[in-house]
Write a structure and sequence with these properties.
This protein has 155 residues and is an alpha+beta fold. It has two domains: 59 residues; 94 residues, 2-Layer Sandwich (Alpha-Beta Plaits), CATH 3.30.70.260. 55% of the residues lie in helices and 21% in strands. It contains four helices and four strands, in the order ααββαββα. A hairpin with a 4-residue loop joins strand 3 and strand 4. Helix 1 packs across helix 2 and helix 3 packs antiparallel against helix 4. The longest helix is centred in the N-terminal third of the chain and has 32 residues.
Length: 155
């Protein structure tokens, strides 16, 4: 009897952990598992998109050495990915200045500028009610990269 209660408590604890990891608001077991399944599918799609972006960057690195940019619309803001197989000194500053010009606050970011350049940032519109289109964000980041690239060619 005690072991059955122990197993039930352990299962409940694991379901609550799964619920918190997947940001589920479900209350019953089935709904929590369905939400977790959807969350896993979203993660798989994100990995697939990032792998495609990396593949595109690798295929185009001979033709155009500029970084690849992807922008996804989130519930509140944008997920911006910039990937380059080459080190790009100063590019991060140019991109962050562009975010500032667009009125995007960086909520979360991960950047690597060592041997290659990778930036994943979540940007959210400042308190204005005007929403910027994801394509506008992508074009602005691409323009920042182009300006950065041209200024580096002159050096």
């Amino acid at each position: 009897m005690v072991s059955r209660e122990h197993k039930r408590a352990a299962l409940h604890e694991k379901l609550q952990l799964l619920r918190s990891i997947t940001n589920s608001h479900a209350l019953n077991k089935t709904s929590i598992i369905i939400d977790a399944s959807k969350y896993i599918e979203e993660l798989k799609q994100k990995v697939e998109r990032l792998n495609q972006a990396i593949g595109t960057a690798q295929n185009s690195s001979d033709k155009d050495p500029r970084p690849v940019v992807t922008v996804e619309t989130l519930e509140k803001g944008y997920l911006i990915n910039v990937i380059s197989e080459k080190n790009c000194p100063g590019l991060l500053v140019s991109i962050l200045e562009t975010f500032d010009e667009l009125g995007l606050n960086v909520q979360e970011a991960s950047a690597s500028c060592e041997e290659s350049f990778r930036l994943e940032a979540v940007g959210q519109n400042e308190e204005s009610t005007e929403s910027v289109d994801a394509q506008v964000v992508k074009q602005a980041v691409c323009q920042a990269i182009k300006n950065w690239s041209e200024s580096n060619e002159q050096d």
